[in-house]
Please model this.
Amino acid sequence: MSFRTIIEPFRIHSTQAIRSITSEQREAALERAGYNLFGLHGDDVLIDLLTDSGTGAMSSRQWAAMMDADESYAGSRSFYRFQDVVRDITRLKEVIPTHQGRAAERILFSVVVKAGQVVPNNTHFDTTRANIEFCSAEARDLVIPEGRIPAARHPFKGNMDVTALEATIQEVGRDRIPLVMVTVTNNSGGGQPVSLANLKAVRAVCDKHRLPLYLDACRFAENAYFIKLREEGYAGKTAREIAREMFALADGCTMSAKKDGLANIGGFLAMNDPAVARECRNLLILTEGFPTYGGLAGYDLEAVATGLDEALDEDYLKYRLRSTAYLAERAEQGGVPVVQPPGGHAVYLDARALLPHIPAGQYPAQALAVELYRAGGVRGVEIGSVMFAKRHADGSETPAAMELVRLAVPRRTYTQSHIDYVGEVIAAVAQRKDALRGYRIVEQAPWLRHFTARFAPL
Ligand code: F0G
Model:
């Protein structure tokens, strides 16, 4: 017999209390934080959907592996175990641990990206973009047109526009393109997957122009399971086999193990080119640490090694993608349109569609994010013009392509009743949407301003 309900494929072994605070306390917390949800004290948040990064619950197997870690400065047994697991999944030869994804990005780009160059990607995540721009290069987003339209349904909305990639190479010249990247899943475009057919097509363009292809692999396991569910010919393959096929098309990857590594910290950089690896390790020693630990404790390496295997467990992946889709259904039932189809790790509320009376320059997605916290202590994150507007020298801004609020689902952390509660909060905010007002920025940093900007309500 088979049953309809997809259960959490674990039982809860230890718990952590969360408490709710009054609406007056939430209002005061918002004022203190300058209406920036990154500025809140974690204890003032009831359900924290700010990120799925480093916020998941680890398994008893991970904790057990951590207890048995080797803290040798050089040549730790835990490093070799980590390297074996990464190589088994990616088949990439050189494995360089880093403390998280952006460290891998910074090191890779410092080695391969020169000023004036252009890096194509389906959509750069904010740290990826910032690290490329920090090298005085251009980060160019080339996702397929459907990937920019929240309501457009496409099974692989994270795919790269291969024609646009070819046109970019013609326009810029291959010598000004140090590498091509593809982000799986496409976080900034809605957590949308990339198909193997698309990866193969991108690979063919890279081969034709002799360009290296790197995956931003943070959510490779979720991407692999989407391929299993949606791409013709993959239903009979395991997530691990599909992941291997994805990595087989790449020359390297950057990885934040805080996502599909199911760990609270960690990452890596992996590639086949030994010359690039040598230069990366030289930089690693300068800022992260010796190449067999890269800024991580031996126990972190163990947590990641075990987590990478658990992330490919299909009972887990089935539950994972279903629980995110469930949140999307709840949001739509509550009257808030979401990016369709829902992504793997997060649901993206379409603030522009919900709040047409707030212009982009008054940050409608920021207004929605603040309101979800104000109403019910739910913290999401703005992924719109606060994060991605193009800022010009005269202070004006070109708005971002979409105005979204991301509700990211931490892995193995919240139960279905937590999500039902979030659905109620969303519905309550949608009921009074006409009363919502925009924000202006009163203080901001030159890059990655969304982390620290302060706002005032209009
Ligand atoms: N690439 C992607 C696609 C990401 O989503 C992230 C992080 C990174 C790179 C950087 O990794 O945080 O370990 O340095 N995303 C988190 C998020 C922060 O909330 O989406 P990191």
Summary: The first strand starts at residue 47 and ends at 48. Residues 51, 53, 100-102, 125, 127-128, 183, 187, 216, 218, 256, 258, 267 surround F0G (CB under 6 Å). The chain has a mean pLDDT of 96.
